[in-house]
């Protein structure tokens, strides 16, 4: 395999919370410390790293705080909440990653960038919410919120989860700044939570306007990787491989697969909406039509191997 040069790593929400999805500051910092060690190992392998991350648990929790305190302090819109999660997660990642880089004797340091992502104002994702956020609740508790007008969905064995609008990312507005920071030698943390969704509907001169939604971070990562001319996209989650027949007795892990094989599995409904589905779609969008690119979906512990070794995780290549 051709050695990687510039890698975009998309860090899953699972990597930043506890095993049971809990998101106290201590649990988040401990999880991020562990993630930072694996990311620093990727940097140590000699590649440029641009890091993006999820925010599903964190942005859902902020929404709840806003709603509960609405009679005391003015609530802020969902795009502001996304911006707030970018800042909190980026500073925590920067603290832990800088320490992990220094511990390995590496000279690189981390820079976090508040990042906007352009979406279409008439995207169907605004009318048909699809993005799970926040905590899991048992059905009876979730139904209390449904009665208040919220949308909740059965997410399987962990329980029910709130669902919000999630338009398709079109482009990362701040890509040129990310590129400049990467070229200057920084490990850049950017486009967290898929980026702050903004539209350009021409109604306000040249100004972009934030819109209330949460973009899928894996889909944004695919665009970011293309815009930064990365050769490798690594989607880090909590399973070592994508599986076919997931959760059934015939489940089997996928190793190296072509774009057309993976499209076949996706078309056969193998990958769940709101979890593995967008990861596979992001990997396919990044690799499709670009002979020099490679996408890997694997667990955090395997990301350094995924960059240097063709046998780690599920590898999608042209
Ligand atoms: N076909 C599949 N192969 C592997 N995992 C799957 C599959 N379908 C659904 N999953 C689930 O997807 C989860 C990862 O998605 P998600 O929880 O959204 O990740 P993250 O928060 O890390 O971005 C896994 O923990 C697994 O339970
Ligand atoms: N925004 C987003 O996709 O977050 P998660 O990866 O945490 O769901």
CATH homolog superfamily: Acetylglutamate kinase-like
Ligand list: adenosine-5'-diphosphate, phosphoric acid mono(formamide)ester
Count of domains: 1
- β content, as a range? 15-25%
Kindly provide the radius of gyration, computed on alpha-carbon positions and rounded to a whole number of angstroms: 19 Å
CATH topology (fold) name: Carbamate kinase
Order of helices and strands: EHEHHEEEHEEEHEEEEHEEEEHHEHE
Largest sheet: 8 strands, mixed
GO molecular function, one term: carbamate kinase activity
Protein name: Carbamate kinase
InterPro entries: AceGlu_kinase-like_sf, Asp/Glu/Uridylate_kinase, Carb_kinase
Keywords: Kinase, Transferase
Description of the molecule:
The chain has nine helices and 18 strands. The protein is an alpha/beta fold. The chain has one domain (7-317): 3-Layer(aba) Sandwich (Carbamate kinase). Helix 1 (25-44) packs across helix 3 and helix 2 (56-68) packs across helix 3 (78-103). Phosphoric acid mono(formamide)ester is lined by residues 12-13, 54-56, 193-194, 214, 216-217.
What are the SSEs and their pairings?
Blueprint lengths: L5 E6 L13 H20 L3 E6 L2 H13 L9 H26 L6 E4 L2 E3 L12 E7 L1 H8 L5 E3 L5 E5 L6 E2 L2 H9 L3 E4 L5 E4 L3 E4 L2 E2 L6 H11 L4 E6 L5 E2 L7 E2 L2 E3 H9 L8 H12 L6 E6 L3 H6 L5 E4 L1
Parallel strand pairs: 1-2, 1-13, 2-9, 3-9, 4-10, 13-17, 16-18
Antiparallel strand pairs: 4-8, 5-7, 6-7, 10-12, 14-15, 17-18
Phosphoric acid mono(formamide)ester binds next to loops.
């Amino acid at each position: 395999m051709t050695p990687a040069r510039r890698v975009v790593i998309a860090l899953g929400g699972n990597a930043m919370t506890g095993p049971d999805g809990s998101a106290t500051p201590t649990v988040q910092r401990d999880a991020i410390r562990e993630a930072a060690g694996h990311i620093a190992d990727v940097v140590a392998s000699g590649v440029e790293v641009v890091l993006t991350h999820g925010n599903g648990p964190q942005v859902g929790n902020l929404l709840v705080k806003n709603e509960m305190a609405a009679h005391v302090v003015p609530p802020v819109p969902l795009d502001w909440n996304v911006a707030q999660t970018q800042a909190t997660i980026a500073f925590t990642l920067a603290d832990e990653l800088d320490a992990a880089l220094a511990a390995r004797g590496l000279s690189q340091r981390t820079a976090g960038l508040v990042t906007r992502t352009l979406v279409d104002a008439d995207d169907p994702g605004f009318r048909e919410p699809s993005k799970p956020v926040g905590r899991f609740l048992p059905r009876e508790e979730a139904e209390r919120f449904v009665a208040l007008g919220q949308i909740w969905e059965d997410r399987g064995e962990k329980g029910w989860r709130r669902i919000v609008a999630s338009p398709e990312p079109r482009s990362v507005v701040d890509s040129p700044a990310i590129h400049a920071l990467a070229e200057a030698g920084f490990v850049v943390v950017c486009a967290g939570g898929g980026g702050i969704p903004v539209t350009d509907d021409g109604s306000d001169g040249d100004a972009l306007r934030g819109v209330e939604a949460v973009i899928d971070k894996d889909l944004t990562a695919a665009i970011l990787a293309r815009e930064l001319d990365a050769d490798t996209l690594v989607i880090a989650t909590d399973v070592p491989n994508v599986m076919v027949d997931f959760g059934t007795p015939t489940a089997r892990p996928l190793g190296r697969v072509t774009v057309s094989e993976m499209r076949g599995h996706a078309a056969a409904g193998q990958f769940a909406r709101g979890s593995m589905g967008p990861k596979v779609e992001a990997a396919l969008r990044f690799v499709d039509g670009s002979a020099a690119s490679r996408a890997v979906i694997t667990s955090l512990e395997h990301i350094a191997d995924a960059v240097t070794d063709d046998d780690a995780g599920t590898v999608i290549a042209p």
